[in-house]
Amino acid sequence: MKKNFFLFILIGIFLSSCSVKTNEGLYNLTAKEWYKQIIKDLQDKDLEKADEHYNGMASEHVSNPLLETTLIILAQAHIDEEEYQLAEFYLDEYNKKFGSSRNADYIRYLKIKAKFDAFGVPNRNQALMLESQKEISDFLQDYPDTEYNPLVQTMLTKFNLAIFYLNDTIKDLYYRTGHTQSAEIYEQKLRESEFYKQSIIKPELPWYRSIFEKF
Fold first, then answer.
1. pLDDT at position 150, please?
2. Cα gap 152→116, rounded to integer Å
3. What distance, in Å, lies between the first and last C-alpha atoms of the chain?
């Protein structure tokens, strides 16, 4: 009888501990409660928790208006932390759920800005530069009167300058290695650039990085 009694107690303790573990996560919150929790996560600098709680909010409140604000906040938070792919994820989610002609230019601007902020070193990310260059050109063509025109134009100029600098570096490499024909192709690209024959200060790299950046 005593053995059965103690076995019953042990089973009860086990089940209660399992119950505690399965209830550690948040669920069945109102949209406002989820929103406040996500803001708290961001204040605590815990983006991973914020992402997790967004999933809970989105699954329980599929089309709640608070999701619109939450998506933009999370996208910006990831941009600030240089997590640009996650930022693009939230912007894509925003576009799917709340995109309209009213805010389409703003969302595309934020995606371009995320790519621009991801670009850090002038002779890396050639594919990113060319992709961003095209996205900006398409954006300016699609939204010629957008209020974000000056900001995007500035980004385009910087991308164009970075590509000019990269082409100049590749040209020098080909000349140094005896590939004259290839060097002349890049020389022609430089001649066609708006920056050709302009006085340009090349970006300087820290000495510890320059060792690895040289071709």
1. 93
2. 10
3. 82
Top-confidence residue, 158 or 153 = 153
| pLDDT tens, residue by residue, 185-194 | 989 988 888 7
- Dihedral sign of CA atoms 12, 17, 21, 26 in order: positive
Q: How far are the Cα atoms of 32, 74, 126, 175, 189 from residue 63, in angstroms, in the given order?
A: 13, 17, 39, 59, 50
Looking at residue 85, its amino acid is Q
**pTM for the whole structure:** 0.64
Match 């406002």 to its residue by tokens.
32
Q: Do the beta carbons of residue 145 and residue 184 sit within 8 Å?
A: no
CB-based burial of residue 64 (10 Å sphere; 0-12 exposed, 13-18 middle, 19+ buried)?
middle
What pLDDT, in 10s, does the model give residues 79-101?
888 888 899 899 999 988 888 87
